[in-house]
Write a structure and sequence with these properties.
406 residues, alpha/beta, Rossmann fold, 2 domains, six-stranded mixed beta sheet, 28% helix
Length: 406
């Protein structure tokens, strides 16, 4: 039996270090590599880093369809408002005021979610053909230039405030900052807040626990973390499942296939010998960017009971591989921020379940969410790993990792 480890792995016996033809023997630069959750890209423009995505012929990205998920979240919020027009305007001023917790202004997923909410609520302002994702900060009077007033069912919809939730140390998507910020906002204009929108559940739940649950204010998040899904029974309005079970499987499966030298589609779109296979409703693959994207699902009061345990492996890909055809291999995998609620409480437990099924001995490295060096300094001997799975702090910094694999 293999075992997981959180410490540096010892050198395997020489016989176990024989690579397959596709794993290559020319050095670390030729080993399988998957970028996951944070797609290599320019944090200012969103332009993909194709040098990183095509690092070698066994490099892939695994994430989810950010735009589809963002539009799904925005529509979920708009539908909720439409269904509750008679009661949602808490102070009767004719304005449905919402506040928005932004995760990371330089992250493509955060940008997409901000745009998705503003598009659905009619509050987006276009710049060069795209909705401006910039924080409005305070906009109680509706004068901010990056947003505009929208309208649903005859009522005005206004983004009262939005802010990037970054803590003093520089970590983004920070739940504690969101919890503090909702306190500041409610002290200034609390009775005008009718809806809370968050780029993720970590921040959403911090705001829900700090204020909105007691006030009965609907709060919408993203990620379908177990605590957020459970909170729907207590008034959390909804969240989006980014199919983390499919993402975690794909993160390790693309490495497994490369290490085994089999068709890259094995166990993904084509059933493997154990019967693992995904459907077109679960994911799609973009060949031009070598990227796998899981598809999102809305989680509301109507279906939340189906999502209560976010760490259960996805049944269609839950079958054990044989060590005869898929021998144990060593993988180095990092998580950009060990304190990130979604990655630590949902994604990593799923990875740990799948690494057993796929016969991968994964070393999990947790970063501080602030500096790339906190992670890269712990990849001191890449020779001892057969493959790598990388989750960057900043999407611009792919070269910080590939430089170690030369």
């Amino acid at each position: 039996m293999k075992k997981k480890t959180l410490s540096v792995l010892g050198f395997a016996a020489a016989a176990s270090m024989v690579f397959t033809m596709t794993a290559m023997a020319d050095g670390n630069a030729d080993k399988p590599l998957v970028w996951w959750n944070r797609q290599p890209s320019n944090s200012s423009t969103g332009e993909l880093d194709m040098d990183a995505l095509t690092w070698n012929d066994q490099t892939y990205y695994v994430g989810f369809d950010a735009n589809q998920g963002a539009e799904l979240q925005g529509q979920m919020i708009a539908d909720y408002i439409e269904a509750n027009l008679d009661t949602i305007d808490r102070n009767g001023d004719g304005i449905i005021g919402y506040v928005l917790a932004i995760g990371d202004i330089g992250h493509n997923d955060s940008i997409a979610r901000t745009r998705g909410a503003r598009k659905a609520l009619g509050t987006g302002v276009e710049v060069d053909g795209e909705i401006d994702p910039s924080p409005a900060e305070t906009n109680v009077d509706g004068s901010a230039s990056v947003v505009q007033d929208g309208e649903i069912g005859g009522l005005t919809v206004r983004e009262l405030a939005s802010h990037e939730m970054k803590n003093a140390s520089g970590a983004t998507w920070d739940a504690a900052t969101a919890g503090n910020t909702i306190g500041t906002w409610t002290a200034s204009f609390g009775d005008q807040i009718d809806v809370i929108v968050s780029n993720n559940d970590g921040m959403g739940m911090a705001m829900f626990n700090a204020w909105s649950q007691a006030e009965g204010v609907p709060t919408f998040g993203y990620d379908a973390n177990s605590d957020a899904v459970a909170a729907i029974a207590d008034g959390y309005a909804g969240t989006i499942s980014q199919h983390a079970d499919v993402q975690a499987y794909l993160t390790l499966r693309v490495l497994r296939n490369a290490l085994d030298g089999v068709d890259p589609d094995t166990g993904i779109g084509t059933a493997d010998e154990a019967g693992n296979v995904l459907s077109e409703e679960d994911y799609y693959y973009d060949e031009d960017t070598r990227s796998y994207y899981a598809l999102n699902l809305a989680v509301t009061a109507d279906n939340y009971e189906d999502f209560l345990d976010s760490t259960v492996v996805y049944a269609p890909v839950a079958n054990q591989l044989s060590e005869d055809s898929s021998p144990v291999k060593n993988v180095w995998l990092d998580i950009y921020n060990a304190s990130d609620n979604f990655l630590s409480s949902t994604y990593q437990p799923l990875l740990e379940n799948y690494d057993d099924l796929l016969n991968l001995n994964v070393e999990y490295i947790g970063g501080d969410g602030q500096t790339e060096s906190n992670i890269t300094n712990r990849l001191g001997n890449p020779d001892q790993y057969d493959a790598y799975a990388i989750n960057m702090v900043k999407t611009d910094n792919a070269a910080s990792y590939t430089a170690l694999l030369q």
